[in-house]
Structures are given as structure tokens and as C-alpha cells.
Amino acid sequence: MERYLIKGLSNLQGEVTISGAKNAAVAIIPATILARGRCIIENVPNISDTAALFKILESLGASVKMLDRNTVEIDTSDIGEPVVPHDLARMLRASYYFLGALLGSCRRASVSMPGGCDFGVRPIDQHIKGFEAFGTNVSVDYGMINVSAERLTGAHIYFDVVSVGATINVMLAAVRAKGVTVLENVAKEPHIVDLANFLNSMGADVRGAGTDVIKIHGVDIMHGSTYSIIPDQIEAGTYMVAAAATGGDVLVKNVIPKHLESIIEKLERTGAEITEYDDSVRIIRKKPIEPVNIKTMPHPGFPTDMQAQMTAMLMMSTGTSIITEGVWDNRFRYVDELLRMGANIKVDGKVAVVQGVQELTAAPLKATDLRGGAAMIIAALMAKGDTQISDIYHIERGYENILEKFRGLGAQIEKISEPDPVSAQSA
Ligand code: EPU
Q1: What is the DSSP letter of 46?
Q2: Preceding peptide of 300 cis, ω within 30°
Q3: Residue 125 in contact with ligand 1 by CB distance below 6 A
């Protein structure tokens, strides 16, 4: 079993360079199928989620070649049977983007129900509603989602909830539907805009991404293109919070400051000083951490994917913070782990009340999900003693080179491999 071993009470200093956005990459990689040609994608984060998508593409008949650590050449000319089996689909949530991409490209697909982080029930009714509006037959049999359509006809679709996944999946099919599609009440995250820009670079006609309404004129043919993915807003936010939490001084490079506005606003309220440059931000915290209330919302609200990291920092504030989760039903599972460090957090449904404490102490922790795991690293850096975090595969799904990046900021963090004491005993 692999774990991180982290020495506490370090304050982060120096520079860190942010990778390409995971949640843009996981949409753009399946979208290459729409071109049936050669795409070169740059600034791809080298993480286990993108590696899993490359495996799925190869299983479908695509050729995938890494040109360097973050640039991939994908040739989708020879896509065969449009089926993504369970052992591949379960590796990540975004495997369901192959439904939209294959439906657009082949008019049919079968994809096993996806995996992903556990935040309670994760319905896909809005994806299905969108596909059906184009005239698609959708069925779920033996754990597979099957979609097929003789022809896809553009449609007017109003989403009942703002969903990143449904917006992306339906866009992927709509670019190849006949006629015009209008999508209302869509997600506006930076990765939605990035996907639209990529689709347009392949010959699609997508307008309005980043607003509440997206209008798509379907096209018959799309072509390969060369495209560079935007920087990861959440990876940037994670290092910004880590810097502020540890009383550090860090320059976070390769970011789009506009994407970080809601995070910057909350960090400034905690007493951090933030300077924005063209493509970097500097975070310094010298004063005690002030408490702050946060409610997560779809973009441009405060991102749910930064909720756990902020909670970790606020564990050592000078007062009481109220954190309300506005997107997921159950995204506080990581809190049980943080309580082992002496935190004072009470969770009631979608609300956590965080009462600041003066000291946190190291404890053995288990990453519960990607962002919860990142929060545990931040907590470990603030705590007295050496913290071990297990189940780090959750963290490595979404953070490229995390050990090297934290070490570059002066953190003492290493990966250790040792037998799991429980299974060793029971073996
Ligand atoms: N929802 C429905 N019906 C649907 C789809 C969603 O009711 O058909 C609900 C969900 O249950 C949830 C809300 O709508 O309450 C928002 O879900 P959304 O579809 O936006 O989430 P997602 O697409 O499954 C993506 C990110 C998540 C991020 C959310 C919200 C990817 C691969 N995942 O998930 O990222 O939390 O959007 O921004 O893009 C992460 O990176 O750590 C992560 C979990």
C-alpha cells in the first residue's frame, strides 16, 4: 500500500507551475472521436484519469502517442465497435463522455455505468433527457447505458439542474446533429468554454459557451486540430490555499486569474494578501487566519471542488466558519478524517460548522476522494508531527506531480510503500 508521509508545520515558499485542467482534458480527450482524424492536444495533465481515457480510446481502435510528457497525438480514423466495457468505464466518471462523443460520431454507443468519487447519488437523468431530445433511444441493460439513433436532430433542451457533465455530454452529440440545438440553463465552468473552443477548432459551430445558453449548428464533418488545454483552476486554488494555510509566500504560475476570482475573494477575507499578474498570482499570509463563510455553487460561484481545501485551512482560524455545500448531497466524508487531527467541525447534512483550533496534531488519515485527499495534505502541513495519508490513488487521479510540486515549495513529503498492516495480519 502506498502512502504519503508529510512533515508538519512547514510554511510553503517559492513557485509552482500549474498543469492543464483535468476537467477540461477529460472532456476534450473523448471529443477527439468526433473528428475521425489526427488531433494534437497540448498541456494535457499527466494523471491517472487522462491515462485511463487513453486506454479507453485505444480499446475503441484509436492510436494514442505521447509526443512528450504533456502532449498527445490521437488518431481516431479507425474507431471500431463503440463499446466501453465495465473494467475501463469504472476507472473514472468522465468515461460517460464517450456516450455523447460516440453518439455524435457513430450514432450509437454502449458504455458501462461510470465510476468516480462518491458524493452520494450521482444521477445522469439530464444527460439522458438531452440525448432523447435528439431522437435517441436510451436504455440501461446489465449495467450498460446504450444509446442509438438513426439520425440525430437538433433540439431545444432546458436542463432542470445545472450540470457540468450533462452540458458536456449533450454538446458532444449536438455538434454532429442535423440542424440547430439550443441548450438552456447550462453549466458555465471554464472547462465548458475550453471544450467549445476545442470543438470549434475541429470545425464545429458552438456559440455562447460560458453563458446560460449555448447554441450549436450541427455540422456533417469535423477535422483534426492542434489545441492547448487551459490551466487547472482547482489545482491552482489548491496550492493557493496551501500557501495561505501554512502562512507561506508562493507564486502560482501558469494560471488564468479571471478563473480564480471566487477563490481569491474568499482567501483575501481570511487575511491572505494576493497579487494578480497576467498569468500568475502571488499569495502571502502573515496575519492569523480569519474565519469566513462559504457556499459552493456552480461557476461563477465558489467551486465545490475547493470546498474541502478551504475547510482544512479554516480548521485553524480564529473563529467560526460556516461551509455550505450547494452542489453535492454528501461531500463532507473527508471531515471524519480531519477530526482525527483535533479539528472542531460539526457536519449536519450539507452544512459544516468549523470552529478554529490553535493546534492540529498528526494522525494516520485515509483519502476519501480527490479533493478531500488534497485537503488532508494541507491539514498535514499545518499539523504538529508526521502525518501519513493512505488511499492516495484518489489524489493522483487529479494532481500531476504533486510530490515534486509540494517539495519545490519546501514541503517535506514523500511516498512510502509498505504492506497494509491489516491485510498483512489477516494474510
Ligand atoms: N445532477 C443531476 N442529474 C444529472 C447530472 C447531475 O441531478 O443528470 C446533479 C448532481 O447530482 C449534482 C449536480 O447536478 O448535485 C451537479 O453535478 P454535475 O453534473 O455538474 O457534476 P459532474 O459533471 O458529475 C463535474 C466534475 C466534478 C465537479 C462537478 C461540479 C468532472 C469529471 N467532474 O462533475 O469534479 O465537482 O462537475 O462542478 O468534470 C473533481 O474534480 O474533484 C470533481 C468531483
Answers
A1: -
A2: yes
A3: yes
Q: Alpha carbon 293 to chain centroid distance? A: 23
Query: What letter would DSSP give residue 63?
Result: E
Backbone angles phi, psi at 92, to 5 degrees: -160, 155
Distance CA 366, CA 37 (A): 43
Point out the residues that are catalytic.
117
Residue with CA at minimum distance from ligand 1 atom 43: 305
Coil, helix or strand for 362? coil
Q: Cell 467549445: give the residue.
A: 196
For residue 124 and ligand 1, the question of a CB distance below 6 A is answered with yes
93: confidence class by pLDDT, cuts 50, 70, 90: confident
Residue 218: pLDDT band with limits 50, 70, 90 = very high
Burial 56-75 (b: 16+ CB within 10 A, else e): bbeebebebeeeeebebbbb
CA of 282 to the centre of ligand 1 (A): 30
- The DSSP bridge partners found for residue 3 are 416
DSSP-assigned letter for residue 32: G
The amino acid at 147 = V
Does residue 92's CB lie within 6 angstroms of at least one atom of ligand 1?
Answer: no
Is it the case that residue 374 has pLDDT exceeding 90? yes
Using the structure block, give the residue that is written with the C-alpha cell 457540468. 164
Give the cell for residue 10: 512547514
Contacts (Cβ under 8 Å, ≥6 apart) of 393: 2, 48, 367
